[in-house]
Amino acid sequence: MTQGKVQILVALGSNLPWQGKASVNILHEALSACEEAGMARVAQSRIFATPCFPAGAGPDYANACAQLEVEKTAEGTLAQLHAIEAAFGRKRISRWAGRTLDLDLIAMGDRVLPDRAAWSHWHRLPPEAQAQEAPDRLILPHPRLQDRAFVLVPLADIAPDWTHPVLGLTVRQMLGALPQAEIDAVRPIST
Questions:
Q1: According to the UniProt record, what class of enzyme is this (predicted)?
Q2: What is the domain count for the chain?
């Protein structure tokens, strides 16, 4: 990694078509859009079919993860990811609603943002409160990544040894802590 650049982990998801394109195609095109925006692709996972979260909220998802290299701040990178989502028809109507494209900034190197206290608050927030509350600023690493097979399974494809800067666990260890049924529900559909 060159000076001034940092590697980020991004989770990609789609469960709604856009301009006649299926979710798998949207994810491929979104990765190309990231590169066009100056985010160098280091690695990308296979694409997986995953049950909609929360269950029953819409069609199943196509999910993947990518490791990219950027020179921007965390906030600048997030703004760029949101702009790409919007270019693919993303509408932020309600939390956990179906979407044409979701680009979640999962981690930025070993940074903890905005600080450990804020990260811990969002990490400990009960699931029922998560449905009602959203942070007003970027929280990194994503405070729920260790709970989500639809993120950890594709992330294990590209960064199994990435270590969570707060939990001290690798992607492989976090994935191994999940119930096997949740892991088995994430099925590869594309390379």
A1: transferase
A2: 1
What residues pair up with 11 in beta bridges, in sequence order? Answer: 65, 104
The tens place of each residue's pLDDT in the chain, 191 residues long, gives 445 899 999 999 999 999 999 999 999 999 999 999 999 999 999 999 998 866 777 789 999 999 999 999 999 999 999 999 999 987 766 555 678 999 999 999 999 999 999 999 999 988 778 767 878 889 999 999 999 999 999 999 999 999 999 999 999 999 999 999 999 999 999 66
Whether residue 1 is contained in a domain is answered as no
% helix / strand / coil in the chain, to the nearest 5? 35, 25, 40
Residue 145 belongs to domain with CATH number: 3.30.70.560
Count of Cβ atoms closer than 10 Å to residue 162 Cβ? 22
For residue 46, is it within any domain?
yes
C-beta of residue 40 within 8 angstroms of C-beta of residue 49 = no
Alpha helices (H) along 88-170: 116-124, 127-130, 149-158
Helix (H) or strand (E) holding 27: helix 23-36
Range of the domain at 99: 6-190
Look up residue 93 and give its two tokens.
């109507």
93 is a domain residue: yes
